[in-house]
Amino acid sequence: MNRKLATVLAAGAGLTLVLSGCASGGTSDAGSGASGDSAEGGLISIIVNDPSNPYWQTEGNVAEAEAKALGYEANVAASKGDTNTESNLIDTAITNKSVAIILDPANASGSVGAVKKADAAGIPVILVNAEINETGLAKAQLVSNNAQGAALGAQQWVKDVGDTGDYAELFGAPSDNNAQTRSNGYATVISQYPGLTEVAEQVANWDRTQGHDKMQSILQANPDITGVISGNDEMALGAIAALKEAGKLEQVKVGGFDGSPDAVEAVKSGELQYTVLQPVATFAKKAVEQADSYIRTGETGASEEKQAFDCILITKENADKVTEPFTLAE
């Protein structure tokens, strides 16, 4: 695995909006019941991954609310991480004459074509949460500072697990560059402790059920592990469920990444050692603001296409300050 040095920057998270969530089955197709000229500002199509995950649910809700607050019509659709579905949703957004598209890309390489289609149709695309492997197509790419967040998490993880022992890693979707960036960030910190040995790495695709099942397999082969470091909260929460079933949760310390409501509650209860809060509500709102700026002026107002927003470590000490989804109170 390529071990890249994680760069830790200083920053903070912004204020978010709290909205009622949508279940995965209640997500509408882009443009359903809407047309590009049905609101004064036009239609902004928002395409997220899977709103059954609270992270993506918040991403879509905040972007939709900000678009409406700025005078646009908006709706949220889900690709479920499938590039064919994503491509069809982009086609629908083009057909409905969207004035902008907010897109959480399904695949770093596979989503390039979809962005090209929108760009060729003259529709500005603002990417959120995940990047694509090409610059100059999207008008902006707004993501969490995953390297910085991974370093924060790994440092806390070592404090909780100790500097010796066998451990396992749950890896996110390989098609998402965030998965490798976080894994590299973890490795940069943990490699400084030669007494810690990674005995298993399993891909669980950001999913709680897969995290549970992969954790069961890991325990069968490695019953004496003392730590699990996870690429996101959903996989970590699945691992915790498997560890509880095996009666090993006290023995194995688990760390997460996202700052989801369920993870924050698990931190408060002591089942999860920490989570790394991604300021998704902040950059989802900012993405719509930049889309609005581009529609009005031809510029996003940002100095760079790629913009990283720093993460915040959540432990028992500050978990009570997470009073709204993915937002740490001042």
UniProtKB/TrEMBL annotation:
Keyword Chloroplast among UniProt keywords: no
Domain Periplasmic binding protein: 44-298
Recorded GO CC terms: cell envelope
Signal peptide: 1-23
Primary localization: other
Keyword entries, A-Z: Signal
Subcellular location: Cell envelope
GO molecular function per UniProt: carbohydrate binding
Lyase keyword on record: no
Pfam family, one: Peripla_BP_4
Family the entry assigns: Belongs to the bacterial solute-binding protein 2 family.
Descriptive protein name: D-ribose ABC transporter substrate-binding protein
Organism: Frigoribacterium faeni
